[in-house]
Write a structure and sequence with these properties.
The chain is an alpha+beta fold. It is built from 8 helices and 10 strands.
Length: about 270
């Protein structure tokens, strides 16, 4: 009798323990925790519904429903893209895209695309956007108008992926790379432009020096002309006569007549003797 009671007690303990375990399993199966920055897509017997669970503690039907976690955080993807420019130059570029899946579109993306939405939607859209925009610009313009080209590629990419619920946060062209022949041509052009600038600078400097020298000569000539004019104006008859007297050596000139020369020197001497 005592043994029978003990057996019943042990059996009851086992039943209670099993029930507790089952209750724990049921409760655990009825709870879904969605991490921060994510959303949960509810699957009922494997079929995705339009219901999306927000981050935190959520409840679901045990054994019937499961929750697929979709990240809505900003993610970064680097893409190697190849294209052809307007002047038929091959362009290789490294592109960095920051994007995120909108929470409201998590169920739609999972139902229609799946978890591999990067490979199926994002990466091909980046490649296509790069090709379509690069074809509008020459290779040189892709370099000189890099910011403008980047904005245009981003706008094209946004149009392609936002309809799926993928939001592009940031778009950067890390680098452009061209063929070796094109790079050599660009380098040669830069060298030629630098030489042209140097030659132009030297010519401008020579012109400035020549103009300065010409101005000095002009000013000297003007000063000489002004001096000559002043001297000419200062030569009055009295001054001219004075200059003649100062330069006279005391000898009288010979006078000339019609038939003979007359030496007036002797007359001057006789006059002085008297």
């Amino acid at each position: 009798m005592a043994k029978s009671s003990g057996s019943k007690f042990k059996f009851s303990i086992i039943i209670i323990a099993v029930l507790v375990i089952l209750a724990g399993i049921v409760i655990t199966s009825a709870v879904a925790i969605v991490p921060a920055g994510c959303s949960g897509v509810v699957l009922t017997f494997g079929k995705a519904s339009d219901n999306v669970m927000s981050e935190g503690l959520n409840f679901k039907v045990p054994f019937m429903q499961e929750v697929v976690i979709i990240s809505n955080k900003i993610q970064k993807q680097e893409v190697e893209a190849a294209a052809v420019s307007k002047d038929l130059q091959t362009v290789s570029s490294n592109i960095a895209v920051n994007y995120r899946v909108l929470g409201s579109s998590s169920a739609s993306i999972y139902k229609n695309i799946g978890r591999d939405y990067e490979t199926i939607i994002l990466l091909p859209a980046v490649q296509e956007s790069m090709k379509s925009v690069s074809a509008k610009y020459t290779a040189e313009e892709l370099i000189t108008l890099r910011a403008q080209v980047g904005e245009e590629i981003k706008s094209t990419l946004v149009e392609k992926v936002e309809e799926y619920g993928i939001h592009v946060e940031k778009f950067n062209i890390v680098n452009f790379d061209f063929s070796e022949e094109f790079n050599d041509a660009i380098e040669a052009k830069q060298v030629a432009e630098q030489n042209l600038i140097k030659t132009k600078t030297e010519q401008e400097q020579a012109l400035v020096i020549a103009e300065a020298q010409a101005e000095v000569i002009r000013k000297k000539a003007q000063a000489q002309a002004d001096a000559n004019k002043l001297l000419s104006e200062s030569l009055t008859p009295e001054v001219v006569e004075y200059e003649k007297i100062q330069k006279w050596d005391g000898k009288l000139p010979y006078a000339t007549g019609t038939n003979a020369f007359i030496d007036v020197t002797g007359l001057a001497d006789n006059t002085a003797a008297e």
